[in-house]
Protein backbone atom coordinates (compact mmCIF):
# COMPACT_ATOMS: atom_id res chain seq x y z
CA UNK A 1 0.00 0.00 0.00
CA UNK A 2 2.82 2.38 0.96
CA UNK A 3 4.49 1.48 -2.34
CA UNK A 4 1.41 2.56 -4.34
CA UNK A 5 1.11 5.79 -2.33
CA UNK A 6 4.76 6.57 -3.15
CA UNK A 7 4.16 6.06 -6.90
CA UNK A 8 1.09 8.32 -6.78
CA UNK A 9 3.07 11.05 -5.01
CA UNK A 10 5.87 10.84 -7.59
CA UNK A 11 3.34 11.10 -10.40
CA UNK A 12 1.61 14.13 -8.87
CA UNK A 13 4.95 15.81 -8.28
CA UNK A 14 6.06 15.10 -11.88
CA UNK A 15 2.84 16.58 -13.29
CA UNK A 16 3.36 19.76 -11.32
CA UNK A 17 6.67 20.26 -13.16
CA UNK A 18 5.02 20.38 -16.61
CA UNK A 19 4.64 24.04 -17.62
CA UNK A 20 1.15 25.32 -18.49
CA UNK A 21 2.47 26.70 -21.82
CA UNK A 22 5.35 25.58 -24.02
CA UNK A 23 8.88 26.68 -23.25
CA UNK A 24 9.39 28.15 -26.71
CA UNK A 25 6.53 30.65 -26.63
CA UNK A 26 7.59 31.81 -23.17
CA UNK A 27 11.11 32.13 -24.48
CA UNK A 28 10.37 34.03 -27.68
CA UNK A 29 8.08 36.53 -26.00
CA UNK A 30 11.22 37.66 -24.23
CA UNK A 31 13.26 38.04 -27.42
CA UNK A 32 14.22 41.40 -28.82
CA UNK A 33 12.33 40.54 -32.06
CA UNK A 34 9.04 40.12 -30.23
CA UNK A 35 9.56 43.08 -27.89
CA UNK A 36 10.21 45.45 -30.78
CA UNK A 37 7.78 44.12 -33.41
CA UNK A 38 4.83 44.25 -30.99
CA UNK A 39 5.55 47.87 -30.06
CA UNK A 40 4.12 50.41 -32.52
CA UNK A 41 6.19 53.17 -30.89
CA UNK A 42 9.49 51.34 -31.42
CA UNK A 43 8.56 50.43 -34.99
CA UNK A 44 7.60 54.00 -35.89
CA UNK A 45 10.99 55.22 -34.65
CA UNK A 46 12.88 52.52 -36.50
CA UNK A 47 10.99 52.86 -39.78
CA UNK A 48 11.44 56.65 -39.75
CA UNK A 49 15.16 56.12 -39.43
CA UNK A 50 15.12 53.61 -42.29
CA UNK A 51 13.04 55.91 -44.54
CA UNK A 52 15.56 58.73 -44.07
CA UNK A 53 18.49 56.57 -45.06
CA UNK A 54 16.96 54.66 -47.99
CA UNK A 55 16.19 56.08 -51.44
CA UNK A 56 12.84 55.59 -53.16
CA UNK A 57 12.35 52.18 -54.69
CA UNK A 58 9.57 53.10 -57.13
CA UNK A 59 10.44 54.97 -60.29
CA UNK A 60 8.44 58.11 -61.06
CA UNK A 61 8.67 57.14 -64.74
CA UNK A 62 6.25 54.21 -64.32
CA UNK A 63 3.09 54.93 -66.32
CA UNK A 64 -0.09 53.06 -67.11
CA UNK A 65 -1.75 49.95 -65.81
CA UNK A 66 0.37 47.00 -64.79
CA UNK B 1 -4.93 49.61 -52.94
CA UNK B 2 -3.24 52.02 -50.55
CA UNK B 3 0.03 50.68 -49.15
CA UNK B 4 0.32 50.27 -45.38
CA UNK B 5 2.37 52.73 -43.31
CA UNK B 6 5.95 51.45 -42.90
CA UNK B 7 5.50 50.52 -39.22
CA UNK B 8 2.14 48.83 -39.91
CA UNK B 9 3.82 46.54 -42.43
CA UNK B 10 5.95 44.93 -39.76
CA UNK B 11 3.78 45.22 -36.65
CA UNK B 12 3.27 41.79 -35.05
CA UNK B 13 0.06 41.06 -33.15
CA UNK B 14 1.08 39.59 -29.79
CA UNK B 15 -1.88 37.19 -30.11
CA UNK B 16 0.39 35.12 -32.34
CA UNK B 17 1.59 33.29 -29.21
CA UNK B 18 -1.92 31.84 -28.91
CA UNK B 19 -1.77 30.29 -32.40
CA UNK B 20 -1.80 26.61 -31.53
CA UNK B 21 -0.05 25.70 -34.78
CA UNK B 22 2.49 28.47 -35.31
CA UNK B 23 2.66 30.16 -31.92
CA UNK B 24 5.46 27.97 -30.67
CA UNK B 25 7.83 28.83 -33.50
CA UNK B 26 10.24 31.60 -32.54
CA UNK B 27 10.80 34.45 -35.04
CA UNK B 28 14.45 33.62 -35.66
CA UNK B 29 13.68 29.97 -36.43
CA UNK B 30 12.25 31.08 -39.79
CA UNK B 31 13.72 34.53 -40.33
CA UNK B 32 17.21 34.19 -38.82
CA UNK B 33 18.88 37.20 -37.20
CA UNK B 34 19.95 37.54 -33.58
CA UNK B 35 16.99 37.46 -31.16
CA UNK B 36 19.14 38.52 -28.20
CA UNK B 37 20.66 41.64 -29.76
CA UNK B 38 18.95 44.83 -28.44
CA UNK B 39 20.28 46.88 -31.40
CA UNK B 40 17.81 46.39 -34.26
CA UNK B 41 20.39 47.25 -36.89
CA UNK B 42 22.81 44.51 -35.94
CA UNK B 43 20.06 42.13 -34.82
CA UNK B 44 18.74 42.04 -38.40
CA UNK B 45 22.03 40.88 -39.90
CA UNK B 46 21.24 37.81 -41.98
CA UNK B 47 17.47 38.22 -41.60
CA UNK B 48 15.40 36.64 -44.40
CA UNK B 49 12.31 38.73 -45.05
CA UNK B 50 10.32 35.96 -46.76
CA UNK B 51 11.66 32.56 -45.72
CA UNK B 52 9.11 30.89 -48.01
CA UNK B 53 10.51 32.24 -51.29
CA UNK B 54 11.87 30.78 -53.46
CA UNK B 55 12.01 27.58 -51.38
CA UNK B 56 9.34 27.00 -48.75
CA UNK B 57 10.40 23.55 -47.62
CA UNK B 58 12.63 24.70 -44.76
CA UNK B 59 10.07 27.09 -43.27
CA UNK B 60 6.81 25.24 -43.98
CA UNK B 61 7.85 21.75 -45.04
CA UNK B 62 7.97 20.10 -41.62
CA UNK B 63 4.19 20.33 -41.30
CA UNK B 64 3.02 21.20 -44.84
CA UNK B 65 5.37 18.90 -46.69
CA UNK B 66 3.28 18.13 -49.76
CA UNK B 67 2.05 21.69 -50.26
CA UNK B 68 5.49 23.24 -49.88
CA UNK B 69 7.00 20.70 -52.28
CA UNK B 70 4.28 21.20 -54.90
CA UNK B 71 4.29 24.96 -54.55
CA UNK B 72 7.78 25.10 -56.09
CA UNK B 73 6.17 24.21 -59.41
CA UNK B 74 2.97 26.24 -59.07
CA UNK B 75 2.45 29.05 -61.55
CA UNK B 76 2.61 31.71 -58.83
CA UNK B 77 6.14 30.57 -58.04
CA UNK B 78 7.52 29.59 -61.44
CA UNK B 79 5.84 32.16 -63.71
CA UNK B 80 6.37 29.48 -66.32
CA UNK B 81 3.86 30.84 -68.88
CA UNK B 82 5.69 34.20 -69.04
CA UNK B 83 9.02 32.46 -69.48
CA UNK B 84 7.78 30.16 -72.22
CA UNK B 85 5.97 32.89 -74.13
CA UNK B 86 8.91 35.30 -74.08
CA UNK B 87 11.34 32.48 -74.90
CA UNK B 88 9.28 31.65 -78.00
CA UNK B 89 9.24 35.26 -79.16
CA UNK B 90 12.85 36.05 -78.18
CA UNK B 91 15.79 36.32 -80.52
CA UNK B 92 17.60 32.97 -80.29
CA UNK B 93 21.07 34.56 -80.36
CA UNK B 94 22.61 33.86 -76.95
CA UNK B 95 23.97 37.39 -76.50
CA UNK B 96 20.48 38.83 -77.01
CA UNK B 97 18.46 36.22 -75.16
CA UNK B 98 20.71 36.71 -72.12
CA UNK B 99 19.83 40.40 -72.07
CA UNK B 100 16.15 39.55 -72.42
CA UNK B 101 16.48 37.18 -69.46
CA UNK B 102 18.11 39.99 -67.46
CA UNK B 103 15.28 42.37 -68.33
CA UNK B 104 12.69 39.73 -67.39
CA UNK B 105 14.43 39.34 -64.06
CA UNK B 106 14.39 43.12 -63.43
CA UNK B 107 10.74 43.52 -64.34
CA UNK B 108 8.50 40.53 -65.06
CA UNK B 109 9.72 38.19 -62.34
CA UNK B 110 9.04 40.76 -59.65
CA UNK B 111 5.41 39.61 -59.77
CA UNK B 112 5.31 36.27 -58.03
CA UNK B 113 3.90 34.92 -54.84
CA UNK B 114 4.87 32.56 -52.05
CA UNK B 115 3.32 30.88 -48.99
CA UNK B 116 4.19 33.95 -46.93
CA UNK B 117 3.01 36.45 -49.52
CA UNK B 118 -0.50 34.97 -49.51
CA UNK B 119 -1.02 33.71 -45.96
CA UNK B 120 0.99 36.20 -43.88
CA UNK B 121 1.63 39.39 -45.81
CA UNK B 122 0.53 41.25 -48.88
CA UNK B 123 2.65 40.32 -51.91
CA UNK B 124 5.95 42.19 -52.36
CA UNK B 125 4.81 43.48 -55.74
CA UNK B 126 2.23 45.64 -53.94
CA UNK B 127 4.76 46.75 -51.33
CA UNK B 128 4.05 43.96 -48.84
CA UNK B 129 3.07 44.40 -45.17
CA UNK B 130 1.52 41.93 -42.75
CA UNK B 131 -2.11 41.09 -43.44
CA UNK B 132 -3.10 40.92 -39.80
CA UNK B 133 -0.10 41.40 -37.58
CA UNK B 134 1.62 38.26 -38.90
CA UNK B 135 -1.31 36.09 -37.78
CA UNK B 136 -1.48 33.23 -40.29
CA UNK B 137 -4.47 33.51 -42.64
CA UNK B 138 -5.78 30.13 -43.77
CA UNK B 139 -7.64 31.78 -46.65
CA UNK B 140 -5.84 34.76 -48.17
CA UNK B 141 -8.08 37.84 -48.08
CA UNK B 142 -9.31 38.63 -51.59
CA UNK B 143 -8.62 42.35 -51.84
CA UNK B 144 -5.38 42.50 -49.86
CA UNK B 145 -3.85 39.55 -51.71
CA UNK B 146 -5.57 38.28 -54.87
CA UNK B 147 -6.82 41.47 -56.48
CA UNK B 148 -3.95 43.47 -55.01
CA UNK B 149 -1.89 41.91 -57.82
CA UNK B 150 -4.64 40.99 -60.28
CA UNK B 151 -6.06 44.49 -60.13
CA UNK B 152 -6.24 46.21 -63.47
CA UNK B 153 -8.15 43.43 -65.18
CA UNK B 154 -9.62 40.89 -62.74
CA UNK B 155 -10.49 43.26 -59.91
CA UNK B 156 -12.10 45.88 -62.13
CA UNK B 157 -14.03 43.24 -64.03
CA UNK B 158 -15.14 41.29 -60.98
CA UNK B 159 -16.21 44.33 -58.95
CA UNK B 160 -17.75 46.11 -61.95
CA UNK B 161 -15.42 49.10 -61.57
CA UNK B 162 -15.34 49.94 -65.28
CA UNK B 163 -17.72 52.68 -66.31
CA UNK B 164 -20.98 51.23 -67.54
CA UNK B 165 -20.08 47.67 -66.52
CA UNK B 166 -21.80 45.57 -63.93
CA UNK B 167 -20.01 43.39 -61.38
CA UNK B 168 -19.80 39.67 -61.99
CA UNK B 169 -22.93 37.83 -60.95
CA UNK B 170 -20.61 35.72 -58.78
CA UNK B 171 -19.49 38.83 -56.93
CA UNK B 172 -23.11 39.74 -56.29
CA UNK B 173 -23.51 36.34 -54.71
CA UNK B 174 -20.60 37.22 -52.39
CA UNK B 175 -18.28 34.61 -53.86
CA UNK B 176 -14.61 35.10 -53.17
CA UNK B 177 -11.74 34.04 -55.40
CA UNK B 178 -11.16 30.79 -53.52
CA UNK B 179 -14.66 29.57 -54.36
CA UNK B 180 -13.44 28.83 -57.92
CA UNK B 181 -9.65 29.03 -57.49
CA UNK B 182 -9.17 26.46 -54.76
CA UNK B 183 -6.15 25.95 -52.57
CA UNK B 184 -5.35 22.84 -54.60
CA UNK B 185 -5.14 24.90 -57.77
CA UNK B 186 -3.10 27.65 -56.12
CA UNK B 187 -0.67 25.31 -54.36
CA UNK B 188 -0.10 23.25 -57.49
CA UNK B 189 0.07 19.50 -57.87
CA UNK B 190 3.78 19.14 -58.55
CA UNK B 191 3.41 19.37 -62.33
CA UNK B 192 4.79 22.27 -64.32
CA UNK B 193 2.08 23.64 -66.59
CA UNK B 194 2.70 25.81 -69.64
CA UNK B 195 -0.48 27.85 -69.14
CA UNK B 196 -3.02 28.29 -66.38
CA UNK B 197 -5.66 26.79 -68.64
CA UNK B 198 -3.95 23.40 -68.40
CA UNK B 199 -3.92 23.19 -64.60
CA UNK B 200 -5.90 20.08 -63.70
CA UNK B 201 -7.53 21.56 -60.60
CA UNK B 202 -8.30 24.83 -62.36
CA UNK B 203 -11.86 26.14 -62.32
CA UNK B 204 -14.48 24.90 -64.76
CA UNK B 205 -17.89 26.53 -65.06
CA UNK B 206 -19.47 23.07 -65.32
CA UNK B 207 -18.22 22.23 -61.81
CA UNK B 208 -21.16 24.24 -60.51
CA UNK B 209 -23.32 24.58 -63.64
CA UNK B 210 -23.44 20.98 -64.85
CA UNK B 211 -27.24 21.03 -64.94
CA UNK B 212 -27.44 23.50 -67.84
CA UNK B 213 -27.46 20.63 -70.36
CA UNK B 214 -30.24 18.71 -68.62
CA UNK B 215 -33.52 18.31 -70.46
CA UNK B 216 -35.58 20.45 -68.08
CA UNK B 217 -32.95 23.17 -67.63
CA UNK B 218 -33.66 26.73 -68.62
CA UNK B 219 -32.13 27.63 -72.01
CA UNK B 220 -31.16 24.01 -72.54
CA UNK B 221 -31.44 24.33 -76.33
CA UNK B 222 -29.00 27.24 -76.50
CA UNK B 223 -26.59 25.51 -74.15
CA UNK B 224 -26.70 22.21 -76.03
CA UNK B 225 -26.33 23.88 -79.46
CA UNK B 226 -23.24 25.82 -78.38
CA UNK B 227 -21.60 23.12 -76.25
CA UNK B 228 -18.05 22.57 -77.49
CA UNK B 229 -18.41 25.34 -80.07
CA UNK B 230 -18.33 28.54 -78.02
CA UNK B 231 -16.86 29.03 -74.56
CA UNK B 232 -19.17 30.14 -71.74
CA UNK B 233 -17.54 33.59 -71.83
CA UNK B 234 -18.59 34.16 -75.44
CA UNK B 235 -22.22 34.40 -74.30
CA UNK B 236 -21.81 35.49 -70.69
CA UNK B 237 -18.89 37.95 -70.44
CA UNK B 238 -19.24 41.72 -70.58
CA UNK B 239 -16.73 43.99 -72.36
CA UNK B 240 -13.33 43.91 -70.64
CA UNK B 241 -10.00 45.69 -70.45
CA UNK B 242 -7.31 45.31 -73.12
CA UNK B 243 -3.76 46.62 -72.81
CA UNK B 244 -0.98 47.41 -75.24
CA UNK B 245 2.57 48.51 -75.71
CA UNK B 246 4.38 47.69 -72.50
CA UNK B 247 7.92 49.07 -72.47
CA UNK B 248 10.32 48.42 -69.62
CA UNK B 249 13.52 50.22 -68.65
CA UNK B 250 15.51 51.82 -65.87
CA UNK B 251 15.42 55.50 -64.93
CA UNK B 252 18.43 57.75 -64.26
CA UNK B 253 18.69 56.41 -60.72
CA UNK B 254 18.72 52.84 -62.01
CA UNK B 255 15.22 52.07 -60.73
CA UNK B 256 13.14 49.77 -62.91
CA UNK B 257 9.97 51.18 -64.51
CA UNK B 258 7.33 50.18 -67.04
CA UNK B 259 5.15 52.19 -69.37
CA UNK B 260 1.99 50.99 -71.04
CA UNK B 261 0.47 52.98 -73.86
CA UNK B 262 -3.05 52.72 -72.62
CA UNK B 263 -5.94 50.39 -72.26
CA UNK B 264 -9.30 50.12 -73.91
CA UNK B 265 -12.57 48.44 -73.24
CA UNK B 266 -13.72 45.90 -75.76
CA UNK B 267 -15.40 42.55 -76.33
CA UNK B 268 -14.05 40.34 -79.11
CA UNK B 269 -14.70 36.76 -80.05
CA UNK B 270 -11.75 35.09 -81.73
CA UNK B 271 -10.70 31.63 -82.84
CA UNK B 272 -9.43 29.57 -79.93
CA UNK B 273 -5.60 29.68 -79.99
CA UNK B 274 -5.33 27.03 -77.24
CA UNK B 275 -7.67 24.29 -78.39
CA UNK B 276 -7.44 21.21 -76.20
CA UNK B 277 -9.61 18.39 -74.86
CA UNK B 278 -10.36 20.62 -71.91
CA UNK B 279 -11.12 23.65 -74.10
CA UNK B 280 -12.32 22.31 -77.45
CA UNK B 281 -14.41 25.37 -78.40
CA UNK B 282 -13.77 27.04 -81.74
CA UNK B 283 -14.86 30.46 -80.46
CA UNK B 284 -13.51 32.09 -77.30
CA UNK B 285 -13.19 35.62 -75.96
CA UNK B 286 -9.79 37.14 -76.75
CA UNK B 287 -7.96 39.99 -75.04
CA UNK B 288 -5.08 42.10 -76.35
CA UNK B 289 -2.11 41.68 -74.04
CA UNK B 290 0.47 44.40 -73.42
CA UNK B 291 3.45 42.86 -75.22
CA UNK B 292 5.10 44.92 -77.96
CA UNK B 293 7.91 44.27 -80.45
CA UNK B 294 9.95 46.86 -78.53
CA UNK B 295 9.01 45.81 -74.98
CA UNK B 296 12.68 45.14 -74.17
CA UNK B 297 14.10 47.82 -76.52
CA UNK B 298 15.75 49.63 -73.59
CA UNK B 299 17.95 46.60 -72.98
CA UNK B 300 18.68 45.28 -76.45
CA UNK B 301 17.70 45.77 -80.08
CA UNK B 302 15.65 43.15 -81.88
CA UNK B 303 14.95 41.34 -78.61
CA UNK B 304 11.70 39.76 -79.80
CA UNK B 305 12.71 38.81 -83.33
CA UNK B 306 10.16 35.95 -83.33
CA UNK B 307 7.34 38.22 -82.26
CA UNK B 308 4.93 36.80 -84.85
CA UNK B 309 5.01 33.21 -83.62
CA UNK B 310 2.32 33.90 -81.00
CA UNK B 311 -0.85 36.00 -81.11
CA UNK B 312 -1.08 39.26 -79.17
CA UNK B 313 -4.80 38.63 -78.78
CA UNK B 314 -4.88 35.88 -76.18
CA UNK B 315 -7.54 33.49 -74.97
CA UNK B 316 -9.26 35.37 -72.16
CA UNK B 317 -11.62 34.44 -69.35
CA UNK B 318 -13.04 37.79 -68.25
CA UNK B 319 -14.20 37.80 -64.64
CA UNK B 320 -17.37 39.80 -65.27
CA UNK B 321 -19.89 37.06 -65.99
CA UNK B 322 -23.58 37.95 -66.27
CA UNK B 323 -26.49 35.69 -67.01
CA UNK B 324 -27.87 38.18 -69.54
CA UNK B 325 -25.52 40.10 -71.83
CA UNK B 326 -26.02 42.13 -75.01
CA UNK B 327 -24.63 39.31 -77.17
CA UNK B 328 -26.97 36.64 -75.74
CA UNK B 329 -30.11 38.79 -75.85
CA UNK B 330 -31.17 36.92 -79.00
CA UNK B 331 -29.57 34.61 -81.57
CA UNK B 332 -28.95 37.47 -83.96
CA UNK B 333 -27.37 39.64 -81.30
CA UNK B 334 -24.36 37.44 -82.04
CA UNK B 335 -25.09 35.56 -85.28
CA UNK B 336 -24.37 37.92 -88.17
CA UNK B 337 -23.06 40.60 -85.78
CA UNK B 338 -19.54 40.88 -87.21
CA UNK B 339 -18.62 43.76 -84.88
CA UNK B 340 -18.15 41.47 -81.88
CA UNK B 341 -15.82 39.11 -83.76
CA UNK B 342 -12.10 39.84 -84.06
CA UNK B 343 -11.63 40.76 -87.70
CA UNK B 344 -8.55 41.78 -89.63
CA UNK B 345 -9.52 45.45 -89.42
CA UNK B 346 -9.49 45.26 -85.59
CA UNK B 347 -5.84 44.21 -85.54
CA UNK B 348 -2.93 46.59 -86.11
CA UNK B 349 -1.21 45.94 -89.43
CA UNK B 350 2.05 45.17 -87.69
CA UNK B 351 0.36 42.43 -85.65
CA UNK B 352 -1.78 40.76 -88.29
CA UNK B 353 0.71 38.02 -89.02
CA UNK B 354 0.99 37.19 -85.32
CA UNK B 355 -2.79 37.01 -84.98
CA UNK B 356 -3.73 35.18 -88.16
CA UNK B 357 -4.73 32.14 -86.07
CA UNK B 358 -7.20 34.05 -83.91
CA UNK B 359 -8.72 36.48 -86.43
CA UNK B 360 -12.16 35.23 -87.49
CA UNK B 361 -12.47 35.16 -91.30
CA UNK B 362 -15.77 36.44 -92.72
CA UNK B 363 -16.85 32.95 -93.77
CA UNK B 364 -16.60 31.69 -90.17
CA UNK B 365 -18.74 34.40 -88.60
CA UNK B 366 -22.05 32.65 -87.84
CA UNK B 367 -24.81 33.72 -90.21
CA UNK B 368 -28.05 35.37 -89.11
CA UNK B 369 -30.67 32.91 -87.89
CA UNK B 370 -34.27 32.87 -89.01
CA UNK B 371 -35.19 30.32 -86.35
CA UNK B 372 -35.19 31.30 -82.69
CA UNK B 373 -35.46 28.82 -79.81
CA UNK B 374 -38.52 29.34 -77.60
Number of strands of chain B: 7
Q: How many angstroms separate the termini of chain B?
A: 46 Å
Rg from Cα of chain B: 23 Å
Mean pLDDT of chain B: 95
Shape of chain A: rod-shaped
Helix percent of chain B reads 25-40%
Strand numbers in spatial order across the main sheet of chain B: 5-6-7
- Could you say which structural class the secondary elements and strand pairing of chain B correspond to? alpha+beta
Mean pLDDT of chain A: 80
Query: Which stretches of chain B are low in confidence, meaning pLDDT under 50 for 5 or more residues running?
Result: none
Uncertain stretches of 5 or more adjacent residues of chain A: none
Order of helices and strands of chain B: HHHHHHHHHHHHHHHHHEEEEEEE
Helix content percent band of chain A: 55-70%
Radius of gyration of chain A (CA) equals 27 Å
**Class from secondary-structure proportions of chain A:** mainly alpha
Largest sheet of chain A: none
Extended strand count of chain A: 0
Largest sheet report of chain B: 3 strands, antiparallel
What does this structure look like?
The complex is a heterodimer of chains A (66) and B (374). Chain A is built from four helices and no strands. With 66 residues, chain A is an all-alpha fold. Chain A has a domain at 22-53. The longest helix of chain A is centred in the first third of the chain and has 16 residues, at 2-17. Chain A is rod-shaped, with a radius of gyration of 27 Å. The model of chain A has no long low-confidence stretch (mean pLDDT 80). Chain B is α+β, with helices and mostly antiparallel strands. Chain B folds into two domains: 1-78 and 113-203, no CATH class; 207-374, no CATH class. Chain B contains 17 helices and seven strands. Chain B has helices spanning 6-9, 27-31, 40-43, 57-60, 65-71, 75-78, 80-89, 94-106, 116-119, 142-149, 151-159, 169-172, 177-180, 183-187, 206-209, 220-226, 232-236; strands at residues 240-244, 247-250, 256-259, 262-266, 269-271, 283-288, 313-315. In chain B, strand 2 and strand 3 form a beta hairpin. The longest helix of chain B has 13 residues, at 94-106. The interface between A and B is large, with 33 and 43 residues.
